[in-house]
Fold this protein.
Amino acid sequence: GEDVEQSLFLSVREGDSSVINCTYTDSSSTYLYWYKQEPGAGLQLLTYIFSNMDMKQDQRLTVLLNKKDKHLSLRIADTQTGDSAIYFCAEGRSGGYNKLIFGAGTRLAVHP
Amino acid sequence: DTEVTQTPKHLVMGMTNKKSLKCEQHMGHRAMYWYKQKAKKPPELMFVYSYEKLSINESVPSRFSPECPNSSLLNLHLHALQPEDSALYLCASSQIGSVADTQYFGPGTRLTVL
């Protein structure tokens, strides 16, 4: 199947770390992506990870991939109010155009 | 430059109107995409153009008609829409056959059908 699953809501205190989790089903996925969507806006690419990698770090963002369990996570360090948004994980297979399969999105709420 | 632009930002139309949504990118990407996003849902793929040719039509009703006049532009022509077609319409573009084929999204057009 092509299901990508995410928890729907996460609430964190400002300054804490946020961890958003995602599971996918297609072991042939080549890349896994994290997108951020603020209210009324388009999708902003945050980061992506190649399926043969375990971890990728980019400033406050850390992506962990457990290929055996088909589990992907996004950790945001020192979460700020500006991080409040919906976060979508997506799996894709390269080769020609790239059809993305999106999860339902996790709404991150950051409170003081 | 990783910018995809979309016009208009907002569009209100009646069910008998004909309107068009426009999308433009200057990143040299040869794949362009239309997505529809309803509130509190992920984007749903509608169409994919690859080298200016329609590659994927995800069983979209014919009242939506895509067009790719050149490698930088993508249009979505709308005619006889229904109120349930009200949504955020997102355009995206990507390389073809590169390392990640990452899709870059525009800000979207918020469409309301009365």
User: Anything to note?
Assistant: The interface with chain B takes residues 31, 33, 35, 40-45, 48, 50, 88, 92, 94-100, 102-105 of chain A (CB under 8 Å). Chain A is about 0% helix and 60% strand.
